[in-house]
C-alpha cells in the first residue's frame, strides 16, 4: 500500500525553498508514495521548474489564491479550496513548505482530518524580516500552529534550536534534514570566465565581487553597496555584480547612484542560470539579516570561490569558516569590506583547496541523503498513524 502524501507550497519561483521542494518531489519513489502537489502561482519559473511542472502536470493542482504575501481575501479562498481538496482525497500525510503555505496548509489539513501533518519552514521570519509588532504576531501564530503539526523539519541545527528557544516547539518535535543539492553542484563549471567578463564589460585583470540573491530587505544588499566604497579605497580595480530581482531593486539602484558607484556596479537582474556569474567571481557575498541556509554559499564554495556572509540563521553551518570563507556581523559594512579584502588575497589558496571543500560539503548536502531522510520520516509518521488507528 502506497503512502498518499500532499506537498503544499505557495510558489516555485527562484529560491532555496522551491529548489528543495522540486528535488524532493522528483525523487520520491512512485512505488512507495502516491504524490499530489498543491502550489500557488509561479511568476518566474526557472527552466528546471518549467520541466518539473510539465512532468508532474497530472499530479499538480494549482491554487492561484495561495500567495506569499498577506492578502485576507485570497488567504480565505486558498484555505477553503485547499480544505475541500484535502478532505475529498483522504491523504495520509500533508507536508507544507514555507510560512504562508504552512499557515493555510496546516489548518486546512487538520480540519480536513488528515492524520499526520509535517511542516518545513525553510528558515523562519521571527527576526530580520518585519517590525517588532508583526514579528511578535508571527511568533504567536507559529506557536499556535504547532498544535496542528506533528513534526517540524528544520534545515539546520541552528534553526532547530531557534524554534525551541522561541518556544515554538519542543526539541523532540523537530527533525533536522539538511538541504540536498544536485550532483552537478559539485562539478566544475564549463564556462569561459574571460568571455563572461567581456560580455559584461569587465576588463580581464579586474577583481569581481558579487551578490547572488533575491533583492529583498532581509537579504541586506544595501549593506553590501555601502561596503563597496571602502573596498574601492583599498583596491580601485574591483568590479561589483548584484545578481537577482526583488522589491528593493529601485532602492538599491538609488543607493548606487547616491554613492556614485554606477560605473563599477553591474545589476544583472534575475538569471535562470547563475553559473556564468559564479565563474568570474573572486569573492561571493551574502549579507543577509536572516537566512535559513544560503544555497548560493554552498554552490560558490564547491567551485573554490571564497565567501563572506553574515553570521545569522543557518549560515554558520554552511560556511567552512577559516577554510573557504569568513563570517561577519550583520549590517556591518566595514567588517564585510575587511573580510572581502582578506579573502581576495587568499583567492588562489582557497581555490586550490576546492576538492577538500567539496568533500566537506558533499558529506552534509548530498541529495540522496536528503531524500532518504524524508522517506524515513514519512514512513515513521505513517506507521504511527496506522498504529493509532489499530
Task: Explain what you see.
There is one protein chain. The protein folds into two domains: 3-180 and 366-389, Glycogen Phosphorylase B (Rossmann fold); 183-364, Rossmann fold. It contains 16 helices and 13 strands. It has helices spanning 16-27, 47-55, 72-89, 99-111, 132-145, 157-165, 193-200, 221-234, 249-258, 275-280, 295-302, 315-318, 333-344, 347-352, 354-365, 367-389; strands at 3-9, 33-39, 60-62, 93-97, 116-120, 151-154, 174-176, 207-212, 238-243, 265-269, 283-286, 307-310, 325-328. The strands form two sheets. The chain has a seven-stranded parallel sheet, sandwiched between helices. α6 (157-165) links the parallel β6 and β7 (174-176). The radius of gyration is 21 Å and the shape is globular. It starts with a strand and ends with a helix. The model has no long low-confidence stretch (mean pLDDT 91).
